[in-house]
Amino acid sequence: MGKLVYLYGIIPEGHDINELWDPEKSAIEGEDLPYVEDFGGLAAVVTKVSEDEFGETAMEENSNNTAWIQEKAFHHHEALLELQRHTTVLPMKFGTIFESVESLKQMIEEKEEHLQHTLQTLEGKEEWNVKAYINPKTFYERVAEANENVKAKREEIEQMSKGRQYLETKKLDKFIEEEMFKDQEKKAEEMYDRLAGYSEDSERKKNWKKDVTGREDEMALNSAFLVVSEDLESFLDQIREMEKEKEEDGWLIEATGPWPAYHFATMEE
Amino acid sequence: MPIEQSTRSDSIVDVLELVLDKGVVIAGDIRVNIADVELLTIKIRLIVASVDKAKEIGMDWWESDPFLNSQAARKEVEDENRELKERLEKLENSMASDRTQIGEDNK
């Protein structure tokens, strides 16, 4: 059966696999352990995988198998964490596979300039992910109490006739909810901008629904930042400060890292 | 303070979000479609959903060290898997008909 080339990530040349890989760690599949393929200037950490398990058709099938994805995707991630401990690495997404070393070489040569540039950009930096959650009840109460538009609306209603007051008061709840979503998004955007100011690069991502988070709170911000390692403390200080400022309003902020720079290691220019 | 080292606390859902590229991997010369990330994370979430139950039997590996213990945990999780299969099927059916309804079904 044919062998394919599984690419973990791209690193600067001149590294030996023994300094990058924990020998205790098993292979992604079978017995083939990873190795470094040098391409002059750049190097790739790769391993051989079988077409049986990682070929196009097999992958389609396996990607429906959650246990398989969980195992292999975690392996991929662990491998990159280990690489990251020893060198600057341009991490690939899970499942980046080439027909042969030759086709990998072709890709690297085509994109050499971009890959070199990206590696340089990533040097001395780390990716941190920040998620902010909002407790809808607490935040609703806050908005109902302190939001200027809600206050104005209430005053407006007070001036109305009894009949209209009744109708408008019934609608007030919906108005508060709308204001709440606006406020939530505004605050999330402020947080994101503030953190972006302390990072080299940033990306705002789609919020997860509750099915994915499994939480009572709503996710209001999902974002990734590329932070200069030396400046990490000031970046984290911002998060600590923001949390203190916003805790009473029902916000919770979570930062995780350092991750391999999955968000900032683009293959395309 | 919820600031965590990624080596200690990565949940499966976090890792999947990061290592899967919006469902499609196009960086290699073999093109592979992987199921929608959101659907996948929901599935995996269901598999590991009974965190409380797992904690009772000391399997809170995703909070301590998911990396070293993920192999062992998967076995334990297989039992949960069966239990949750029914729920998952229901969820998938509802996703197929209307993805926006998921939240309701899950409550």
UniProtKB/TrEMBL annotation, chain A:
Organism per entry: Salimicrobium album
Name of the protein: Gas vesicle synthesis protein GvpL/GvpF
Stretches assigned to coiled coil: 101-163
Keywords associated with the record: Coiled coil, Gas vesicle
Top-level taxon of the source organism: Bacteria
Main subcellular location: other
Subcellular location per the Swiss-Prot or TrEMBL entry: Gas vesicle
Family: Belongs to the gas vesicle GvpF/GvpL family.
Any Pfam family: GvpL_GvpF
TrEMBL record, chain B:
Example of a GO MF term: structural molecule activity
Sequence segments annotated as region (Disordered): 88-107
Pfam assignment, any one: Gas_vesicle
Keywords annotated in UniProt: Gas vesicle
Gene Ontology CC terms: gas vesicle; vesicle membrane
Listed InterPro entries: Gas-vesicle_GvpA-like, GvpA, GvpA-like_CS
Transport recorded as keyword: no
Subcellular localization(s) per the UniProt record: Gas vesicle
Superkingdom of source: Bacteria
Keyword Transcription: no
Family in the record: Belongs to the gas vesicle GvpA family.
Name the record gives this protein: Gas vesicle protein
Record organism: Salimicrobium jeotgali
